[in-house]
Amino acid sequence: MKFTNGYWLTKPEYQINHPEESFTAKKDDQRTMSVFAPYKRINNRGDELNIGMTTIKLTSPLEDVIGVKLTHFDQDTHGPSFKLTDQQPNVTMNVGDQAATYQSGRLQVNIPLHQEFALSFNADGKEITASRYRAQGEITNIKNHKHYMREQLSLGVDSHVYGLGERFGNFVKNGQEVRTINKDGGTGSDQAYKNVPFYITDDGYGVFVNQPEPVDFEIASENVDRVQFSVEGEFLEYFVIYGPTPQEILHKYTELTGKIQLPPAWSFGLWLTTSFLTDYSEKTVMKFINGMAERHIPLDVFHFDCFWQRDFEWSNLTWNNDEFPDPEGLIKEIHDKGIKVCVWINPYIAQKSEMFKEGKANGYLVKRTDGNVWQWDLWQAGNGFIDFTNPAAVKWFQAKLKALLDMGVDCFKADFGERIPMDDAVYFDGSDPKREHNFYTYQYNKAVFDVIAKERGIDQAVVFARSATVGSQQLPVHWGGDCLSTFKSMSNTLHGGLSFLSSGFGFWSHDIGGFEDGPDTPTADLYKRWTQFGLLFSHSRYHGSDVYRVPWNFDDEAVENTRKYVDLKLSLMPYLYTQAAHSAAFGNPLMRPMWFEFGADYNTHTIANQYMFGSQILVAPVFNPEGNVHFYLPAGKWTSIVQDGESYDIPEGGKWLTKHYDELNLPVLVRDNTILVKHEKPAHADYDYTKDVDIHLYDMHEGTTTISVVDNHGKDHR
């Protein structure tokens, strides 16, 4: 949201008050400090009258993390709030005549007193960012009387900003306007399913805005020197997180907002779905599963999409017995082949279903202010929304899911959760609908994840979720939503994934081949290229709208291509699951932007069409039918693991290459000084990663290099 007209003027509908000075500061207790910043310079006692003031509270929940809360009027909020950890680190506070300082670990904020207002954040001897004079704002819209709080944090000359959730435009966020409000907008717009008010910079710090309601970010856009963020209301809280490396920033962010959960090993294998609008029954499902086996393509999960339920009754969590007369028998038959079962769900309950009648009668659905259930016809006729602020509603929903788990279902595709009402909405616990909107997805997916964890054990718990917010990294795994079947959308998908994974998440997936069909039904070449890309991500799923995604529906080479890359991924599971366990423990993504690993090489800081698969493997997908790839190799020796004999020695400075690859190959390169543990031709993703493996050494350096392998139960073997 922009409040100004250029650099000098304010838009006529807004009145902006700025802290002009920090008048006083005081230690509240051993860990917090308050700073009082009036909207006028105080030269005499008369200046203290008839003016407003921002109270600035400084806290530190973790070492190297400082929280700043700006309050105009001290008013209560009505939940929910993000769940944050407070490790109560030691802090140092000093209040003098001319300045105050607050320090946690290596991060310090300096506040001049009785001078031009500023907050300067310093670490390791330098300023990393600052709230400069007139950056903060207490703002009133004089036309509609809405109130806002604003902050602006400075950017360095060469600073890049990343993150803010899953965003499918430019990976670098400089110059963009971002509103963090979850919406069901597909992958081809500025809307996003997964909004996270956290950004990370390549200047050694990140910023988390602790507001569950929509936050408006202007990233070097309204003021090109600063990142601006604002919310409607009377207060604004944010945390500056010092790294200085991106790995350290994300580790501290996830320590603050919730540690990443490691998914079960089997979930890393290939998922195959019925697709969405296709006709399917028990016969169709087994035809596809047997077809994969006949073609020697390992399969780990089969997913039943929406029409496993009856028409107009989604999501009633009840099988359509016309198409699936014996679901327990079908699930057992699938299990006997070593394959897990996933079924589609969402939290919207159609009026035609018995579940709607139960929910309405017991007060389990979100209501309007007139006491009626909040309903509309978008998606399913007359659907209502489960009210996850009601503990009884959560237990009711989980009991329905438990019945499916008892039947043999292993996990759920937790779809939707974005179109949650903010207007004329009443929640059981009185939550503010604006604060509940984004947080709803966390409550929804937690209810699903928790019942799986309770029934199967935490090490077997996994959901396939579309929506997310702060803290959802504890509830893996997420996928990218409804992408188009085009090469450009495939590229956009990677941008969205890297953006999401820069926002505190460890694992991510997408619809291989693209979801939307119709005129954009995937061509055979797109299907093959997306298969390669999709199987070189943490989680891999074939899915589409009205076309089946089995490879033999395209051509014989598509079958060979799928087999090759499923086999490659499964062979790499000792490496991938070890890297995944490290990701979960330290808050880092399994797939990561190039600059995470090569930050000293400035060329990597804007690269978004290639990525690191763990710390040692580089992947550059093919985004065109011609098979041409323009990719960058940082300095070092690089060796292909998909094309024998392909290697590159980049002595220094890094190098851009343009290469052509046939439809069975792409750049998948291992960096030097790598020990890669592999198992050739495993049948599934879940096997003993410490037995019957081959050890591959890649251009080892002098000295000692060691590797530990995590087995399929997360145990470390050295």
From TrEMBL:
Key word 4Fe-4S present: no
Gene3D superfamilies from the UniProt entry: Glycosidases, glycosyl hydrolase (family 31), Golgi alpha-mannosidase II
SUPFAM superfamilies reported for this sequence: (Trans)glycosidases, Galactose mutarotase-like, Glycosyl hydrolase domain, Putative glucosidase YicI, C-terminal domain
GO biological process, any: carbohydrate metabolic process
Annotated ranges, domain Glycoside hydrolase family 31 TIM barrel: 261-579
Entry's Gene Ontology molecular function annotations: alpha-D-xyloside xylohydrolase; carbohydrate binding
Residues of the Glycosyl hydrolase family 31 C-terminal domain: 587-676
Top-level taxon: Bacteria
Domain Glycoside hydrolase family 31 N-terminal stretches: 56-217
Enzyme class per UniProt: hydrolase
UniProt keywords, alphabetically: Glycosidase, Hydrolase
Reaction equation(s) it catalyzes: Hydrolysis of terminal, non-reducing alpha-D-xylose residues with release of alpha-D-xylose
InterPro entries, sorted: Alpha-glycosidase_related (IPR050985), Gal_mutarotase_sf_dom (IPR011013), GH (IPR017853), Glyco_hydro_31_C (IPR048395), Glyco_hydro_31_N_dom (IPR025887), Glyco_hydro_31_TIM (IPR000322), Glyco_hydro_b (IPR013780)
Family statement drawn from the similarity comment of this UniProt entry: Belongs to the glycosyl hydrolase 31 family.
PANTHER family: GLYCOSIDASE FAMILY 31, MYOGENESIS-REGULATING GLYCOSIDASE
Protein name in the entry: alpha-D-xyloside xylohydrolase
